[in-house]
Design goal:
elongated; alpha+beta; 9-stranded antiparallel beta sheet
Length: 171
């Protein structure tokens, strides 16, 4: 149990340090007009996740952080955010289709999975709705497995930018 907390703490520290180097993550994008052309970010990444959804044991996987975008998010291909496009962009709201991936799950990943069969690598397709302000961002996604699983997935993310809040208070 202590080992899990050590891994979790280390992942939070690593993630906090890497968050400032990843301008494409929600809520940390620079304000102002989007770039006129393509941007590309590359760097090391780490994912800490349970061996299977609901599992008590975690694994740490090294994953490259690749991020290719046209005009910030008109079209994006990202290891973290998936593949997608913004088809609607008005008054801070953005929406569009998205594809993501889900790691496989094997029945030998945990004792509670014996006899349930393995679920292969899965692509999930769906849509996203995002609201952006210089100091605040929120995003929801609704996706369905296309292949290895057929589950319905709902993700929600809220993020704040304390630097933008401090700048607005100082003025």
């Amino acid at each position: 149990m202590t080992r899990i907390f050590v891994w979790l703490f280390a992942s939070i520290l690593l993630g906090a340090g890497a968050a400032h180097a990843q301008p494409s993550s929600i809520g940390s994008e620079p304000s102002g007009p989007p770039p006129k052309d393509w941007t590309f970010d590359i760097g090391p990444g780490v994912v800490m996740a349970p061996w299977f959804e609901g599992g008590a044991y975690y694994r740490v996987l090294p994953i490259p952080n690749l991020d290719l975008r046209y005009q910030r998010d008109k079209v994006f291909i990202s290891a973290r955010d998936g593949v997608g496009a913004t088809l609607f962009d008005a008054a801070g709201f953005k929406a569009g289709p998205i594809l993501r991936y889900r790691f496989p799950r094997n029945e030998w990943d945990g004792p509670g999975l014996f006899g349930t069969g393995s679920v292969p690598f899965t692509v999930e397709g769906g849509g996203f709705l995002r609201y952006d302000q210089p100091w605040f961002a929120a995003k929801i996604e609704l996706r369905r497995g296309l292949g290895g699983s057929n589950g319905l997935i709902f993700d929600a993310l809220v993020d704040g930018n304390d630097e933008a809040i401090a700048q607005s208070v100082a003025h």
